[in-house]
Design a protein that fits this description.
Elements lengths: L1 E5 L5 E9 L4 H12 L7 E11 L1 H16 L4 E5 L1 H9 L8 E2 L2 H12 L2
Parallel strand pairs: 2-3, 3-4, 4-5
Antiparallel strand pairs: 1-2
Helix pairs in contact: 1-2
Length: about 120
């Protein structure tokens, strides 16, 4: 798994690529925590459009991140490809995680959420 951060005026983006399996899970959890550190009120986009595989440990971490973001009133959206969105939807996480298929759509969605 690789990750890079892109703080911006409209949103902070965490871009993930590769596999998020049991070996990458601790790094994935730390990277997501880094997105919420610093107390910024900027929305967050978790860009997983370049992720090839997400295992159950990665899904569990996404679930924990979603709950933490909800408690902290953080606006965020997950942008993912089929390899990410299919398991998220299959286990019902899409009920608690706002998802999009592209980063552009994610930016549009966080803007709508922020203004509603």
């Amino acid at each position: 798994m690789a990750v890079e951060f892109a703080p911006g005026a409209d949103a902070t983006v965490g871009r993930f690529s590769g596999d998020i399996d049991v070996l990458a899970a601790p790094s994935f959890a730390l990277a997501l925590a880094h997105l919420t550190d610093g107390g910024s009120s900027s929305p967050i986009i978790v860009d997983m459009t370049a992720v090839d595989f997400v295992g159950t440990s990665g899904l569990s971490i996404l679930s924990e991140f979603a709950e933490s973001a909800r408690r902290q009133h953080i606006t965020w959206v997950l942008a993912g490809n089929r390899a990410v969105l299919r398991p998220v939807e299959a286990i019902g996480l899409d009920a608690m995680i706002p998802t999009c298929r592209t980063v552009r759509d994610a930016f549009d969605r966080v803007e709508k959420i922020a203004h509603s």
